[in-house]
C-alpha cells in the first residue's frame, strides 16, 4: 500500500485555505516523474515489448496496447479474474488456446508470461479488427468493443453495442488513456490547491449516487451496487465531487473514477502533493472510488451512500491503488 510522506499533519479544525497553503508549501510545486515515449505510464520491464508489439496492424498502436493492458490488469502478470481470465492481458483459456502465440520463441505458449501474452494481445486485437472491418464507425472503437463484447455483437449492432454499459465504458476508458498527449503537463500546485479548497467547501454535503457535475451538487441516479438511489438527494458521489473541484481549477475531468484515472498521470510514492487524486481498486480496470489528497495522509471524499463529504485517512480502504495527477488535456464531460 502506498504511503504519503508529506511531513505536515492535517488539523481538521483549521480552515481549508490555511491547511492547503501550508501543505502546498511543504509539498512543493515541481513536476513529477519523467514522461515515457508513449503517453501511457508503463512499467520499464514491459515498455520494449509494448513498443515492438504495438505495430501489428493499423488499428493498434503502442499507446493503445498499453492502455488495453492498463485496463485489463494494471500490468499485473499474475492477475486472475473471477471469470477465469488470466495474466497481464486477461485471456480466458479458450481464447488463449486459439490465439496465444510463443512471443519469445522459447517453445512454450504461456499465458502468464508477458513476453508471450503482450504480443498475443496485439495479434488478437488485430484479429478482431479484421472481423469487424467494414462496420460503420471508428475502427479502433469497433475493435475494442469486439475485443470486450465479441465481434458478432459489433456486427449485429453496427458498431459499439448500445445497452452494453460495460463495453461502452471499456471503449471510453481505453481511448481516453490511449489518446492522451505524450508527455503532457500535469496540473500545477495552485490548481491542486484550488481543487482542495473547493472540495473542502462542500464538507457536509450529502452523498448522492450519480450526483454532482461541473456546476456543483445535483440529484443523482439509481442505483448503486447495493441498491441505493440518488434520485431524491442533491449531493455528490465520489467522482462527481472530484469533477466539480477540478472544474473550479479550470480542468475538465471525465465522469467516472476509472475514467479519471485514465486521464491522470500516476505519482510516485513520496511525491504526492495536495490536489492529487487518490484511487482505490485492485487494478486499473477495477477502480471503484476516488478522493482528493489533502496532505499528511488525509483525503477529502464523498465516501458512500448515507454519508456526507468529509475528511478520511488515505488508508480508509484496504485497496489503495494509486495517487495520480490530472492532466490539463482531459476529456470534457459529455
Structural summary, described in words:
- It is a single chain.
- Helices cover 36% and strands 10% of the residues.
- The chain folds into two domains: 16-35 and 185-326, Alpha-Beta Complex (endopeptidase fold (from Nostoc punctiforme)), CATH 3.90.1720; 44-178, Lysozyme, CATH 1.10.530.10.
- It has helices at 16-27, 44-53, 62-73, 93-99, 114-131, 139-149, 151-157, 165-178, 189-200, 238-247, 257-262, and strands at residues 218-219, 234-235, 264-266, 277-280, 289-295, 298-301, 310-313, 320-326.
Write the topology of this structure.
Blueprint lengths: L15 H12 L16 H10 L8 H12 L19 H7 L14 H18 L7 H11 L1 H7 L7 H14 L10 H12 L17 E2 L14 E2 L2 H10 L9 H6 L1 E3 L10 E4 L8 E7 L2 E4 L8 E4 L6 E7 L8
Antiparallel strand pairs: 1-2, 3-8, 4-5, 4-8, 5-6, 6-7
Helix pairs in contact: 1-9, 2-3, 2-5, 3-8, 5-6, 6-7, 6-8, 9-10
Features:
334 residues, alpha+beta, endopeptidase fold (from Nostoc punctiforme), Lysozyme, 2 domains, six-stranded antiparallel beta sheet, two-stranded antiparallel sheet, 8 strands, 36% helix, 10% strand
How is the biggest beta sheet arranged? Answer: 6 strands, antiparallel
Structural class designation: alpha+beta
Radius of gyration: 20 Å
Can you tell me the CATH architecture of the largest domain?
A: Alpha-Beta Complex
Mean pLDDT over the full residue set: 84
Helix content class: 25-40%
Q: Which regions are unreliable across 5 or more consecutive residues at pLDDT < 50?
A: 1-37, 330-334
Q: What CATH first level of the largest domain would be assigned?
A: Alpha Beta
N-to-C order of helices and strands: HHHHHHHHHEEHHEEEEEE
How many helices does DSSP assign? 11
Basic shape = globular
Distance between the termini: 33 Å
- Provide the CATH topology of the largest domain: endopeptidase fold (from Nostoc punctiforme)
Amino acid at each position: 500500500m502506498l504511503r504519503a510522506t508529506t511531513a505536515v499533519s492535517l488539523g481538521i479544525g483549521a480552515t481549508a485555505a490555511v491547511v492547503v497553503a501550508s501543505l502546498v508549501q511543504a509539498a512543493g510545486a515541481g513536476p513529477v516523474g519523467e514522461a515515457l515515449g508513449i503517453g501511457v505510464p508503463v512499467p520499464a520491464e514491459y515498455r520494449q515489448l509494448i513498443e515492438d508489439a504495438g505495430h501489428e496492424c493499423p488499428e493498434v498502436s503502442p499507446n493503445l496496447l498499453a492502455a488495453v493492458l492498463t485496463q485489463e490488469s494494471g500490468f499485473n502478470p499474475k492477475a486472475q479474474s473471477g471469470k477465469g481470465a488470466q495474466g497481464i492481458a486477461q485471456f480466458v483459456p479458450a481464447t488463449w488456446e486459439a490465439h496465444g502465440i510463443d512471443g519469445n520463441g522459447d517453445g512454450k505458449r504461456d499465458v502468464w508470461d508477458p513476453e508471450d501474452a503482450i504480443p498475443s494481445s496485439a495479434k488478437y486485437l488485430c484479429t478482431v479488427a479484421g472481423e469487424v472491418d467494414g462496420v460503420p464507425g471508428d475502427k479502433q472503437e469497433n475493435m475494442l468493443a469486439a475485443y470486450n463484447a465479441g465481434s458478432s455483437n459489433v456486427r449485429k449492432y453496427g458498431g459499439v453495442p448500445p445497452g452494453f454499459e460495460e463495453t461502452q465504458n471499456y471503449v471510453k476508458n481505453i481511448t481516453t488513456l490511449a489518446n492522451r498527449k505524450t508527455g503532457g503537463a500535469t496540473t500545477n500546485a495552485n490548481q491542486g490547491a484550488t481543487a482542495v479548497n473547493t472540495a473542502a467547501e462542500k464538507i457536509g454535503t450529502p452523498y448522492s449516487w450519480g450526483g454532482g457535475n461541473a456546476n456543483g451538487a445535483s440529484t443523482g441516479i439509481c442505483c448503486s451496487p447495493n441498491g441505493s438511489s440518488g434520485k431524491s438527494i442533491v449531493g455528490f458521489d465520489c467522482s462527481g465531487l472530484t469533477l466539480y473541484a477540478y472544474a473550479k481549477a479550470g480542468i475538465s475531468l471525465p465522469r467516472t473514477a476509472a475514467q479519471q484515472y485514465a486521464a491522470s498521470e500516476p505519482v510516485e510514492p513520496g511525491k504526492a502533493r495536495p490536489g492529487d487524486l487518490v484511487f482505490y481498486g485492485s487494478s486499473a480496470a477495477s477502480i471503484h472510488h476516488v478522493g482528493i489528497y489533502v496532505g499528511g495522509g488525509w483525503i477529502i471524499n464523498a465516501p458512500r451512500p448515507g454519508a456526507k463529504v468529509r475528511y478520511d485517512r488515505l488508508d480508509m480502504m484496504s485497496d489503495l491503488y494509486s495517487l495520480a495527477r490530472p492532466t490539463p488535456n482531459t476529456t470534457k464531460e459529455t
